Amino acid sequence: MEEIHKHFLNNNRRNFLKKAGLGIGGLALGSMMDPLNFGKSNDPFSALGNNSLNLPHFAPKAKRIIYLFQSGGPSQLDLFDYKPKLNQLRGTDLPESIRKGQRLTGMTSGQAKFPLVGSVYNFKQYGESRAWVSDLMPYVGKIADELCFVKSMHTDAINHDPAITFFQTGSQQPGRPSMGSWMSYGLGSLNNNLPSFVVLLSNGTGRPKGQPLYSRLWGNGFLSSLHQGVQFRSAKDPVLYLKNPEGVSALERRKMLDYLAELNHEQEASFGDPEINNRIAQYEMAYRMQTSVPETMDISKEPDHILKMYGPDAQKPGTYAANCIQARRLIEKDVRFVQLYHMGWDQHENLPNQIKGQSSDVDQPTAALIMDLKQRGLLEDTLIVWGGEFGRTNYCQGALSDTVYGRDHHPRSFTVFMAGAGVKPGFSYGETDDIGYNIVKNPVHVHDLQATILNQFGIDHTKMIYKHQGRRFRLTDVHGEVKKSLLV
Amino acid sequence: MKNKNSTNYQLLGYFLIPFFGILIFKFISNNPSETFGDLIKENNFTTNTSLNKNSSDYINFNFDVKPILSDKCYTCHGPDENARKADLRLDLEQGFYGTLEDDINKYIINRENPHESELIKRIYNKNSNEIMPPPESNLTLTNKEKETLKKWIEQGAKWKSHWSYSKPILPEIPKTDFSNWCSNEIDFFVANKLESKGLKPSEIEEKEIVIRRLYFDLIGLPPSINDIDDFLTNESNDAYEKIVDKLLSSKSYGERMASIWMDLARYGDSHGYQDDQERIMWPWRDWVIHAYNKNLSYDKFITWQIAGDMLPNATKEQILASGFNRNHKITQEGGVVPEEYRVEYVADRAVTTSKIMMGLTVECARCHSHKYDPISHEEFFSFYSFFNNVDEEGLIVYGETAPKPNLKITKEDLKNELSFVNLPDSINDVTLMVMKETENLRNTYVLNRGSYDSPTTKVSPGTPKVVLPFDYKKNPANRVGLSKWFFDEDNPLTSRVAVNRIWQQFFGIGIVATPDDFGSQGSKPINPELLDWLAYTYQKNDKWDTKKFIKRIVMSSTYKQSSKAKKENLLIDFDNMYLAQYPRQKLSAEMIRDNALASSGMLVNRIGGPSVKPMQPPGLWNEVTGGGGGSLAFYVPDTGDNLFRRSLYTFWKRTVPPPSMMIFDAPTRDFCVAVRQKTSTPLQSLALMNDPQYLLAAESLSKKIFSEKGASEKEKIIKLYRTVTGRSPNKTELLKLNSYLNEVKKINKYSDEKAFISLSVLVYNLDETTQKS
To answer: Final residue of a domain: which of B638, B657, B679?
Structure first.
């Protein structure tokens, strides 16, 4: 049988995914594929398939990424895009010469007037880079010299579902793989005990009952489900079904796996099905995860000064702050892609109040995470991205009063920031007009951002493709341009 | 009574199985099925020789050349007129034999002087300005591909139309040296192909393995030990066939078939976008089960789903069936432009329908003419226009479970024609979405780049010409006409696509491995004559009688043969594409859970009704809904019977689909899916080891086995093993199971009964348990 197995392992195109990892060190989850075998094959059902990806295409700057997704659309005008003129023009109508008939959401398209409104929060300039940051984000302000602000982001979608889907998958309609799945597919795993694409969720205090998320956002789309994002939860079972049932000792489990393997080998001997070996390996990986996941998530040994750095929520499981610590720990274990989602930025009404809580959820932990990575020497090859699916309007949604206003979705301009892994620190890119509606300099489209992120991983975004139903797909569809100006 | 003797039976069975196998084998070999002679008589058609060339040197345009051209050249020299370069088209015959646009002395293909062909020169060119494909395309030809193109030109460069666009013709039943192995016509085609590849078919599988295979394939549930024993002890010639007939008339058959159809029909119990609130479509699912069980012919099954509401004097059942094309996602996200989403729904219907009926990926043609298949941008919208007249809203009211058009089903209806709708006693009526045309039909326009706000030219309903032009005299230009067109005798795709999907149900992979792509970029049929024979037979002989057609498949030796891999076969065909043995396959997500429920005795085998919420880890829904989503903000598991219903009834919230299904490769149901992924992940191992549902099954089965007095430990182990895997353990296995049991007792100081639960957990985790061997 030995000879046949080798034959299988070497040749079985259809079983490509299954054999992954059998060679060295066992399987990984998601992308737990043997990195040596990565990209050697393709969709088992494609007619021709077999596109060698030859990754990385060039020397990478980044090995890992933490994407701090701010779900709902943070108001750039109250956080980073300082527009004093908006305060001067407060209450006056958005001129049609600026709006140019741009599409609005159904929530404000019926409004008779579009009164401009500046932020009630003050802005300050920070650091040597003199970056403008509002009082809502003092901690982020203090590390401004580490950050690369892109103030000229724009997107195609104006509603949450298509816009988040667009950011995560490069397409507004569901069905394509998430960015993390693409990376897992293209680059594989850096470790043997954890998934390479991990997802952490938190609910903001800014807007309770905010808009939802959808598990397809971290889905593998048409890629193998080995590449799906694995949610690490703050619940009893951090990964679904991770814990042994009550009363089952580790020793019993170990015994069971040993017997299971022996019995499965019996099967293999009679059926000659190479897939059986793979399944044995998956059980071993599962067993390792039972130790490695709780170990990674256990912050009891984090020293006080570190916990303090991440702020008061650091020890409350499931908060953004706690997830930031988790993210750092996952990165230390060489998880490739950590995707955080913080919900609650969708402030259509009563924005000044809601955004206050929401900002304080993220301000200190975000800054702490970046500095913590830096002090450990991990920021060099870990990319941090902070931002939402779109921005918010410079005009008020609903009634404008002295202290209260709301803002609708605004896809035409918004801000994201990045740090680490070869992006320029202490740098601002792009500009909006003086009332913060349109971009006037250096626009960056979502596909451009995606192309730039991939670029840091040594991936030419036009070349990392997957053939599905006869068509070659990529994260950036047929668009996207690497924004070299953002890079060191 | 039987239990006392079960060990004896098993031991006996163990020795006799091979013997029975041989018996069956011999019996079948001598008795070709009845229809066989009739078919041969009927065969006055010529074999479709265009598909039939085995000689290794001969380059077949459709099979060898077209895939290369399609994949590497059509992006610029294919059907898309906007992307076309140098005015050169390589998807049409005339393109090949012309000259270069800028040099009329240079022929693309020079048949007199093959090596002067520009095509050859360009692909072998080293100059980056001249080489094809050009470097910026990121496409390259392998040496083998270049060689193939060259050879083809040397052999005369004969062009042929794409294989799937000419209608299937009944091929002759081929001859084979393995005729003794053959049970029916299918086997002759398979055996002939095996022979030509130097492969040998496998002997008929052991009885206890084949019966489990059959049970899962036909009803999605495992056989009980009694079912297996009855079969093992029944020596009559028709024992197997009797089981086939029994299963095909079992109500569970409809459930098994429906669970496949629900993937294609993108069935869900929630609307799918943003807040993803509840919708009611389950009566449609009940209809699907009913339709399969009453063996509604495939033409009616499809016609009612596409156009049931428009048929003359449409019955309520027919209208209910049309709910099929309302299963797409619908948005409730305030703020969207309703028309943008209405366009999505219409496009979804067009794409889903063409995928299921034509096996074509027309969605590419939504934005521009198709890059690979000759389907124009305009043709997409002509096809789309069939579905563009639904009296629907793009943005529905928050909380609406069955937005218009809809159908109300009352208790009164249940007494009559809708008796199959399983309305709970506590509910008086139920309303679900169905199809209905608007009073004033909409004009359909080609949408530039597929975008709702960029209408260009007006189009009328029509179908892709390359498949079969729409005959306006014969068919009304609406969904009824479209259904007629699908079942037109001359439609080349309907029957092929349908039989291929059924084949996939039994063999894991279709004869065409891409059931949703019969076009240029799709896989080519591995056995084209068999595909055509099946297609012709389903359509002409069986008159779309699905049960009859399925019976033919499971009666074949190809289906009944052993799944044990043979070295000599594997060395030639390691993917087992030609089926020299039955392809061992992983059970579907539904089967894995249903096997646990059924074998442990926990299954509540009741048909239909509102979807149910079995156990799932707490918090999964509210973690992402953030508390929104109305009735679906929090997952509240059911209690009692509904925890143990078959998996196809599990409530499907699209944005957070049930983990017990998703972990085992079920699709999200966001859109039509024709092939599920087949993966093995550690998450699957964790679920089988630790999901309380499987632990409960292990416990319940152990209890059952222990409640029967007088059995020895060995007998208990055998019973456990047989109940879960369907097979008697061999000596080594028995030894190992026993020794694990003893170790657990020792480690945990467990009672016999408690340790037996641990053993049951082990058995539920065996590879064999989750496989169809």
So the answer is: B679
